[in-house]
Specification:
7-stranded antiparallel sheet, alpha+beta, 3-stranded antiparallel sheet, Creatine Kinase, Chain A, domain 2, globular
Length: 551
C-alpha cells in the first residue's frame, strides 16, 4: 500500500465512514443483441411496446436497431441498481415474443454487414443526428464491430465526501476544480491497473468465425468446431485487437493530466480532418454518410476504457458540459457480459469495482509519461489475449512481474477500503466479494473466460451453441419470473411517455437539419477553441493511445 493511500485511509477510518465513502452512486448500462430463434440478428424494428429509444431513459438502442441498451439510474446501493436492471429485463422479455437476448459480448452468425440494421430515432433533428452518426461509424469501422456488446459502470462519490476530502488535502481551489482533478487521478490509476477487471470479468475467449467475414482471424480453431475461433488463454477478445478500436494516426493522443488537458487533446481530434474519412464523403447523392470527415465526428466516437462524464443538457455536447460544470462521475467501459448471469452482471462484480475505483481515487496518481503509456497499452492487450497464461509477465516499473504477484498486491491494498464500505452494510458483502475474486487469481480456471471454454468442451459445443444455450436459459429464467402487474404498468407508462416526448420533439423542430447539424458541431468547435486557447495541444506525457481504446 503506498504511503499516500495509507495516510488517506487512516484519516477516513477516523471519520464516520458512512458519511464519506458509503453510498457512492452506481449506475449500470448493459447492451444485448436481439436475435431470432435461430440465433441471427433480429431484422425487426425496435419493439414499439418498449418505448421510443430516442427519449426513453431506461430502454434504448446503441448502434444497431437490434442492439438493446438497458440503463439504470445511479443508486447508492448496489442491489438497487441490479434490481432495476432485473425488472427491465423482465419487461423486455415479456414483449419480445420468440426473440431472445444474445448472452455474450461477441455477436454470432453474421450474414454480411448489410444484414445489420442501423438504429433509427425518428424524424427530429436530434434523431437524425444520432442516426447519421451511426451511419458514419459503419463507414469508418464496419458494421460488425458496432454490434459488440458490453456492460458499463457509472460511479460517483457521495457529495458529502468531497468537501471533507478537500479539507484533508488542504486544497483551496473551487470544489469543482478539486473534484475534477481527483476524478482524473482515479482515471489514470484505473488505466494503470485496467488489466485487472479484464482478467477478472473477461468472458469472451472465443467467437464465431463469421464475425471476421472475409478476413483471416489470427486465432486458433476450436477443436470441436471449425466455425469457432479462440485463444487458449484469452480473457476478453472483445478488449483485444479483435474488438472495437478507434482507427486514428499513432501521433494522436488523449491526455489525462487534467480536465483542461483532456478537453484540449480531445478537441484536436474533433477539429482535425482525416484523409481516409474525407474519401468517404459527408453528403453523397443527397444522403449523409457521416456528420463530418474529422478524426472524431463527436465525442462519443472516442472509445476509451473509462470516460469522465457530466450530465449534459438538451442539445449540449458532452465536452461543453464538462467544460462548464466539471466532472460529475466516471464511466468504466471495459466489462464483458457475464453469460452465466441472466442480466449480464452480478453484485460481486459491481461491489469489487466500487472498491477498486475508490482505491484508484485514494492512491497516489502521477501523470502518465510516454513509456508508462506504452506499458499500460501492452499490459491490457496481453491480459485480454493471454491473461490466464501462467507464464505471462506484465510491465511494472523497471521490472516485469507475474499477473498473480501484481494482482495479489492490489487485493491486499483493498482490504481497508472494504472495511470502510462494510461499516454501513449488513454483514460484510464487500469483503466477501474480495475473497471470492481473490480465488480466481490463484485459480484462473474459475474466471468467466475459463468457464466459457470449459462449458464448450464439456458440452461438446461451438461458441454459437454455447451462446444460444445460455440465451435460451435466460429466456426460461425470465419466463418463470414474469414482471409483476405494477412493474408492467409502470414500464408501459414510461414507454407511452417516451413516444409522446419524441412526437413533441419532432413537432417542435424549427430548423432545417443541415443548419441544426452545423450549429451542433459549431458548439463543439467553440468549446474546442476556448479550451485550446488556454492549454497547448496534449503533451506526450499523460497521453493514452486512442488505438488501444476498447469499446
Amino acid at each position: 500500500m503506498d504511503r499516500l493511500l495509507e495516510k488517506r485511509l487512516s484519516r477516513l477510518l477516523a471519520h464516520e465512514p458512512s458519511a464519506l465513502l458509503s453510498g457512492g452512486k452506481k449506475g449500470l448500462e448493459k447492451e444485448s443483441l436481439r436475435v431470432t430463434p435461430d440465433g441471427k440478428i433480429a431484422p425487426t424494428p425496435h419493439p414499439a411496446a418498449l418505448g421510443a429509444p430516442l427519449t426513453h431513459s431506461s430502454i434504448t438502442t446503441d448502434y444497431s436497431e437490434a442492439l438493446l441498451e438497458f440503463i439504470t439510474a445511479p443508486y447508492p446501493q448496489v442491489q438497487s441498481a441490479l434490481d432495476f436492471l432485473h425488472q427491465a429485463h423482465q419487461f423486455v422479455h415479456h414483449t419480445l415474443g420468440d426473440e431472445l437476448l444474445w448472452a455474450t459480448s461477441m455477436p454470432c452468425l453474421l450474414e454480411g454487414e448489410q444484414n445489420i440494421p442501423l438504429a433509427r430515432y425518428g424524424s427530429s433533428n436530434l434523431g437524425r443526428l444520432k442516426h447519421i452518426y451511426r451511419r458514419g461509424l459503419g463507414h469508418r469501422y464496419g458494421h460488425a464491430m458496432q454490434v459488440i456488446a458490453g456492460v458499463h459502470l457509472n460511479y460517483s462519490l457521495p457529495e458529502a465526501f468531497w468537501p471533507v476530502f478537500q479539507d484533508y488535502e488542504r486544497d483551496s481551489r473551487p470544489l469543482r476544480d478539486f473534484t475534477s482533478d481527483a476524478y482524473f487521478g482515479l482515471i489514470r490509476n484505473l488505466q494503470r491497473i485496467g488489466w485487472l477487471p479484464i482478467y477478472l470479468f473477461g468472458a469472451s475467449p472465443a467467437l464465431c468465425r463469421s464475425f471476421f467475414g472475409d478476413r483471416q482471424p489470427n486465432l486458433a480453431e476450436f477443436a470441436l468446431d471449425a466455425g469457432t475461433c479462440f485463444a487458449p488463454y484469452a480473457t476478453s477478445l472483445r478488449m483485444s485487437e479483435v474488438g472495437y478500436r478507434n482507427k486514428t494516426p499513432a501521433s494522436l493522443r488523449v491526455c489525462y493530466d487534467s480536465l483542461e488537458h483532456y478537453l484540449a487533446s480531445l478537441s484536436q481530434a474533433l477539429r482535425t480532418p482525416y484523409p481516409e474519412y474525407q474519401r468517404i464523403g459527408i453528403v453523397v447523392d443527397g444522403d449523409y454518410r457521416q456528420l463530418n470527415a474529422n478524426l472524431l465526428q463527436i465525442e462519443a466516437e472516442y472509445y476509451s476504457t473509462m470516460r469522465p462524464k457530466r450530465t449534459a443538457l438538451v442539445d449540449e455536447s458532452p465536452s461543453l458540459a464538462l467544460k462548464r460544470r466539471g466532472v460529475e462521475y466516471v464511466e468504466l467501459r471495459s466489462l464483458d457480459l457475464d453469460p452465466f448471469c441472466p442480466i449480464g452482471v452480478n453484485a460481486t462484480e459491481v461491489r469489487f469495482l466500487e472498491v477498486l475505483l475508490l482505491f484508484c481515487l485514494l492512491s497516489d496518481s502521477p501523470f502518465i509519461g510516454s513509456e508508462e503509456r506504452e506499458a499500460i497499452n501492452d499490459n491490457q492487450a496481453a491480459v485480454a489475449r493471454q491473461g490466464r497464461d501462467p507464464a505471462l509477465l506484465l510491465h511494472h516499473g523497471e521490472y516485469d512481474k507475474s499477473l498473480e504477484t501484481l494482482a495479489v498486491g492490489v487485493f491486499d491494498s483493498l482490504e481497508s477500503i472494504c472495511e470502510l464500505l462494510d461499516a454501513s452494510e449488513i454483514g460484510t458483502p464487500y469483503r466477501q466479494s474480495l475473497a471470492v475474486l481473490k480465488e480466481t487469481i490463484r485459480e484462473p480456471d474459475q474466471t468467466p473466460s475459463a468457464r466459457v471454454l470449459q462449458a464448450m468442451r464439456v458440452n461438446h459445443e461451438s461458441f454459437f451453441d454455447f451462446a444460444m444455450r445460455m440465451a435460451e436459459q435466460h429466456r426460461a429464467y425470465f419466463a418463470a419470473r414474469p414482471c409483476s402487474e405494477p412493474q408492467r404498468q409502470l414500464f408501459e407508462k414510461w414507454a407511452k411517455q417516451s413516444h409522446q416526448q419524441q412526437q413533441a420533439l419532432e413537432a417542435s423542430d424549427d430548423l432545417p437539419f443541415d443548419e441544426y447539424r452545423i450549429r451542433y458541431l459549431a458548439q463543439i468547435e467553440s468549446c474546442a477553441a476556448a479550451v485550446l486557447d488556454r492549454a497547448s495541444a496534449a503533451p506526450d506525457s499523460g497521453a493514452v493511445d486512442l488505438g488501444m481504446a476498447g469499446r
